[in-house]
Amino acid sequence: MKTVYLDVLVLENMLMNYVILHVTAKTSRYTVKSLRLALGAMVGTIYAVLALCVSNVFANFAIKIAFSALMIYASFWPKKIKEFLKISLYFYAITFLLAGVSLAALYAGNTNFVNNILITMCVGYLLVTTIAKNVQKYRRAQSISVDVYIQFEKNTERGVWLPAMVDTGNSLRDPFSGRPVIVAEMSALEKILPEEICDVIKTSTAGEILADSALFGERGQWSKRLRVIPYKAVGVENGMLAGFRADVVRIGGDGDERTKELSGVVICLYTEALSDNEEYKALLAPEMIA
Hints:
- The protein is an alpha+beta fold.
- It is 47% helix and 18% strand.
- It has 2 domains: 6-141; 145-288, no CATH class.
- A hairpin with an 8-residue loop joins strand 6 (248-251) and strand 7 (260-262).
């Protein structure tokens, strides 16, 4: 029969519960004092001790859930059920992840208590915070509006600034380079596009353009910039968008020190409006602002 030392059990549970609650606070973006987290960790530790002493009662699943809810309330004191559910989702996900890390450490032959705790805390913390940063980055990107500068021919110095929206649903990529593309309203780019190109885009399908570059007439050099990007949308199973490689793309306000410059980005030309209120005229992929 394995001997369980009460002081070791208390220390182990206090440490693990505190780490779980701390990482939960970080990932859910809640500012919580350390004392509150310690209080929540203590609630979880009390459950562990009671479960050891009265296992036939405290092994009940409903009691486990009740104590985890008490841990969350003691640490975060959520005022709305929506907040409670959000925190609970992070709490359980992090708990399962750290439990998996701890189990992996045991299977690796690391039976030393201190080492196992340190490995679980360090590896688990790094994993969860990395995931959280990526989730938060995409959340921010989803609501970010930026300005984008597009210039097709670098030697002409003819470019245009467009209001753009970062769209997490924009997964279109150039099949040649694998890089994300920009979708822009053609009407907003007519100032910097040759008239013949605009006429071809308006009157021909992407397939027709791809099949016959002579449609460009005297602007045949634009065929070297041509890309046809496959896409799927509601009601469109195998759609294609015609686009052209731009020499210069800048993301950020004109004169902004944080302006990011890209080259060789494909601009897909969309012949309809992208927003009903003309709030934006281009869509960017999140990777373009990362």
